[in-house]
């Protein structure tokens, strides 16, 4: 069924988008695809009224083909529906690699596709060493595994912060209709969405992140972080403790089971530095910790530590940046 | 509704793991283990469904060496009615992939006519976040991953709120279905002593890979496990002006 050695390598990147704009994670996935060592890269754009997204995808550097599936039933991109399309595309084009970003979308979709193709997927890849050898973190980033995949098709999700974004322009991918897929709309249905609205930059692409923990003591007190963030043009994150205490919504959580970030500057305020939190931010370029307990573990990974009362230090820092 | 809950035995979440000097894996001997936190949450939700008379029976499942019986007993003490242990030896278990676990679960779910498979969203050891989605794919059942709220809609559907990158999303899935639990779904209960005693009398059904026709051929090979690069020790700064000055020097501000 699978003849590996006699066919050339080709990669499918599953685009992440909101039917209007291509998500930046897709560009990171294209970079990872390029590292697999082949130039035959296609992007699948599945959604509703996606002509704008497809145009955007065609311009991404190094893209050869844009496979377009435009249908009302794909509007909300439920994994059951997109999965059937990916499988149909695979049956037609016989890709050697299928990639998506390790986001809630990619994480839900890729292993489902893997089951349909009867392969063992590799998730949360942080480095591509060759066409079949990948690196991924385990144990909350405390052990790094180098893995060789013998699967006939490699199915991967890639961590956005580990791969630079491919250039959004310069490419001239050829548009092509996706193969027909028999999409079952009977088993799952989209009911609604409640997205957190914020004028601040997106956590995963922000250059600076200000993050708060339990020591903030209330949702109201988080305001001092927002003030500082706004001065810095930063995004605001949180530890699990702060989310569980209801100080902020859970999509702000940074850590092993929340978002993984790697900004230029990460300012951890009132965060002790549990293993699970550190897993989500330890690849930040510069880490600053502000905490009144000089023995807490966050100081072991911070480039600059300031021991003090955050309710005094943070407004002072905001003031200092104003000047 | 009959619910199959998958539980995994993992190194306790509070333990700082150490990589073996020979770089083959992490040290697991004499290290405290416990039930994967996300699986505890899935189990708790299943027990709640039973307490609300939506679920009739809860069966806990675990694949692994003999020691996995400990966590199956814990699952029974927390409210599972019975357990299935798919036993493999240590050496085999080292090579088991989420793919194989999902195949075993899918086979059981089909053979024993479960209506719901409930798993944690990821195991905190391999951090794979695959098994639930794989099970759903093998069975061609709908999936609701990263669930933070589960409600019944009649006897045929579940309404599930999911944690997604930008916030929350609500979907409706038709049973039979696969769910994976996120942290915010519930607060798992502690097993009480009387329940721990009662759990000793509940049955654990032992199975082998052969019983399920399970092929454990590896598709992935771990070449090396290493320590992550350590960050260079930083410095304490006296006050805010010094901090700002240092950050500017570093080009971070």
UniProtKB/TrEMBL annotation, chain A:
GO molecular function: electron transfer activity; flavin adenine dinucleotide binding
GO CC terms in record: electron transfer flavoprotein complex; mitochondrial matrix
Record bears the keyword Transport: yes
Cofactor: FAD
SMART domains: ETF
Cofactor detail note: Binds 1 FAD per dimer.
Occurrences of domain Electron transfer flavoprotein alpha/beta-subunit N-terminal (ranges): 11-194
Keywords for the protein's UniProt record, in alphabetical order: Electron transport, FAD, Flavoprotein, Mitochondrion, Transport
Amino acids binding FAD: 214, 239-240, 253-257, 270-277, 291
This protein's record includes keyword Flavoprotein: yes
InterPro entries: DHS-like_NAD/FAD-binding_dom (IPR029035), ETF_a/b_N (IPR014730), ETF_a/FixB (IPR001308), ETF_alpha_N (IPR033947), ETF_asu_C (IPR014731), ETF_asu_C_CS (IPR018206), Rossmann-like_a/b/a_fold (IPR014729)
Localisation: Mitochondrion matrix
GO biological process, one term: fatty acid beta-oxidation using acyl-CoA dehydrogenase
Pfam families xrefs: ETF (PF01012), ETF_alpha (PF00766)
Reported function: The electron transfer flavoprotein serves as a specific electron acceptor for several dehydrogenases, including five acyl-CoA dehydrogenases, glutaryl-CoA and sarcosine dehydrogenase. It transfers the electrons to the main mitochondrial respiratory chain via ETF-ubiquinone oxidoreductase (ETF dehydrogenase).
UniProt subunit comment: Heterodimer of an alpha and a beta subunit.
Family assignment from sequence similarity: Belongs to the ETF alpha-subunit/FixB family.
Protein name, entry field: Electron transfer flavoprotein subunit alpha
Organism for this UniProt entry: Acrobeloides nanus
From TrEMBL, chain B:
Pfam family, one: ETF
Key word Electron transport present: yes
CDD domains per UniProt: ETF_beta
SMART domains assigned to the protein according to its UniProt record, in alphabetical order: ETF (SM00893)
Database matches in InterPro entries: ET-Flavoprotein_bsu_CS, ETF_a/b_N, ETF_b, ETF_beta_N, Rossmann-like_a/b/a_fold
Superkingdom assignment: Eukaryota
Keywords in alphabetical order: Electron transport, Mitochondrion, Transport
Domain Electron transfer flavoprotein alpha/beta-subunit N-terminal residue range list: 23-216
GO molecular function per UniProt: electron transfer activity
GO terms for biological process, alphabetical: amino acid catabolic process; fatty acid beta-oxidation using acyl-CoA dehydrogenase
GO cellular component, one term: mitochondrial matrix
Chief localization: mitochondrion
Subcellular location: Mitochondrion matrix
Family listed: Belongs to the ETF beta-subunit/FixA family.
Cited function: The electron transfer flavoprotein serves as a specific electron acceptor for several dehydrogenases, including five acyl-CoA dehydrogenases, glutaryl-CoA and sarcosine dehydrogenase. It transfers the electrons to the main mitochondrial respiratory chain via ETF-ubiquinone oxidoreductase (ETF dehydrogenase).
Subunit structure: Heterodimer composed of ETFA and ETFB. Identified in a complex that contains ETFA, ETFB and ETFRF1. Interacts with ACADM.
Name of this protein: Electron transfer flavoprotein subunit beta
Lineage of producing organism: Eukaryota, Metazoa, Ecdysozoa, Nematoda, Chromadorea
């Amino acid at each position: 069924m699978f003849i590996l050695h006699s066919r050339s390598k080709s990669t499918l990147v599953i685009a992440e988008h909101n039917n209007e704009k291509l998500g930046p994670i897709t560009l990171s996935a294209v970079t990872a695809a390029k590292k697999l060592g082949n130039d035959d890269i296609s992007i699948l754009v599945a959604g509703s009224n996606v002509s704008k997204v497809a145009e955007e995808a065609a311009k991404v550097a190094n893209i050869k083909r844009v496979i377009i599936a435009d249908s009302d039933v794909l509007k909300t991109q439920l994994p059951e529906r997109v999965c059937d399309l990916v499988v149909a595309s695979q049956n037609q084009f016989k890709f050697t690699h299928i990639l998506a970003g390790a986001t809630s979308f990619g994480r839900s979709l890729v292993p489902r596709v893997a089951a349909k193709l009867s392969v063992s997927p590799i998730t949360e890849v942080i480095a591509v060493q060759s066409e079949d050898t990948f690196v991924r973190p385990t144990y909350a980033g405390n052990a790094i595994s180098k893995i060789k995949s013998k699967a006939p098709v490699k199915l991967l999700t890639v961590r956005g912060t580990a791969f630079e974004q491919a250039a959004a322009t310069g490419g001239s991918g050829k548009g092509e209709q996706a193969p027909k897929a028999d999409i079952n709309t009977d088993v799952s249905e989209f009911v609604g969405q409640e997205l957190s609205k914020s004028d601040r930059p997106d956590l995963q692409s922000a250059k600076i992140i200000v993050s708060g923990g339990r020591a903030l003591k209330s949702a109201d007190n988080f305001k001092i972080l927002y003030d500082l963030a706004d001065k810095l043009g930063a995004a605001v994150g949180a530890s699990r403790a702060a989310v569980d205490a209801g100080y902020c919504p859970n999509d702000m959580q940074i850590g092993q089971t929340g978002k993984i970030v790697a900004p230029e500057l990460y300012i951890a305020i009132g965060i002790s530095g549990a293993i699970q939190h550190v897993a989500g931010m330890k690849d930040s370029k510069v880490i600053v910790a502000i905490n009144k307990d000089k023995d807490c573990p966050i100081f072991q990974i911070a480039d600059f530590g300031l021991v003090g009362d955050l309710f005094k230090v943070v407004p002072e820092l905001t003031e200092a940046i104003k000047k | 509704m009959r619910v199959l809950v998958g539980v995994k035995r993992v190194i306790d979440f509070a333990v700082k793991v150490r990589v073996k000097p020979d770089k083959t894996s992490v040290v697991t001997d004499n290290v405290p283990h416990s039930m994967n936190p996300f699986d505890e949450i899935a189990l708790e939700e299943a027990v709640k469904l039973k307490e609300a008379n939506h679920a009739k029976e809860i069966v806990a499942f675990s694949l692994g060496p003999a020691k996995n019986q400990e966590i199956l007993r814990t699952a029974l003490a927390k409210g599972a009615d019975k357990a299935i242990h798919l036993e493999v030896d240590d050496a085999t278990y080292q090579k088991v992939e989420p793919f194989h676990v999902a195949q075993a679960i899918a086979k059981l779910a089909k053979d024993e006519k479960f209506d719901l498979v409930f798993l944690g969203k990821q195991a905190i050891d391999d951090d794979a976040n695959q098994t639930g989605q794989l099970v759903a794919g093998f069975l061609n059942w709908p999936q609701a991953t990263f669930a933070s709220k589960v409600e019944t809609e009649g006897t045929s559907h579940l309404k599930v709120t999911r944690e997604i990158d930008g916030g929350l999303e609500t979907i409706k899935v038709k049973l039979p279905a696969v769910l994976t639990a996120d942290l915010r779904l519930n607060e798992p209960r502690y097993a009480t002593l009387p329940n721990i005693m009662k759990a000793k009398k509940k049955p654990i059904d032992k199975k082998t890979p052969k019983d399920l026709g399970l092929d454990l051929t590896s598709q992935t090979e771990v070449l090396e496990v290493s320590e992550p690069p350590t960050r260079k020790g930083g410095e304490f700064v006296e006050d805010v002006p010094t901090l700002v000055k240092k950050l500017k020097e570093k080009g971070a501000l």
